[in-house]
Specification:
By secondary structure, the chain is mainly alpha-helical. The protein has helices at 25-43, 55-64, 70-83, 87-92, 95-102, 109-124, 133-136, 144-155, 164-174, 183-193, 199-216, 237-250, 256-261, 267-279, and strands spanning 5-12, 18-24, 283-286, 289-292. The N and C termini lie far apart (53 Å).
Amino acid sequence: MKTKKIACQATLDDDGRIFSQKFDEDTRISEFRQMVLDYYSRHGRPMPWRDTTDPYKILVSEIMLQQTQVERVLVKYPAFLSAFPDFSTLAQAPLADILTVWQGMGYNRRAISLQKCAQRVVNEYNGILPADVETLATFPGIGRATASSICAFAFNMPVVFIETNIRRVFIHFFFSDADRVNDTEILPLVEKALFNDNPRVWYWALMDLGTALKKIIANPNRKSAHYTKQAPFEGSDRRIRGRIIALLLATPNLTMDEIAATFTEDPDRILRIVKALESEEFIRCSKNHYSVAS
């Protein structure tokens, strides 16, 4: 990799304000690492999933945190664990019960994936989550980044991965003058900076710093070649999908006409979404009446 000058905020005051200085990435990576760890020692956020190394609880938190704000997960996480405390309980639970507890999280497909993960752990791995990135990456709803984060947080493995907040930190500190940054440029730096003595704490620190940066500067992730702006939720198919599931959880065995009558949107659009939910096994149809799949 070509050596470059980088704008790195190497020290922080007690209020978390950041001072900048220039340094060479090849000779000062240790200072960057120490700055990140110092930030976490003073400003790290308490999270319930940081108080456990239980692989099941870590898996639940990582699936929940996909595309969902931490504040919402903080509310739903303890309720979900109370209802489904382990792999076996979740694997055997009726889908309607899982979706009922999941309501408010959005992206209901994750709840189905989470149950399928639990079923696979129970049926194929004797109830023990595999401590292997390649294996976990084959689980439903788990890509390589999530598999890596699970291995880091549950097993303290020195894996190398990127997610939104990590990307934000590295782009801000190492690519301040760039217009477009690919993850292939970031990954070598993530590997080089990795705090091998405690990868779990290191990634917590990066994520907390990334969250803090988001609040005080223009989003560096807009420079990422992988950046996409999420479509508005209001009026989207995703919102209608959630409303249909919520309706059928509250009132099972509705006909297509009864479902459509509760919406102001075009009935053909509602029919299309209902059929998609049925094909994805969220809901089932029996004698022209729809309910959440069991």
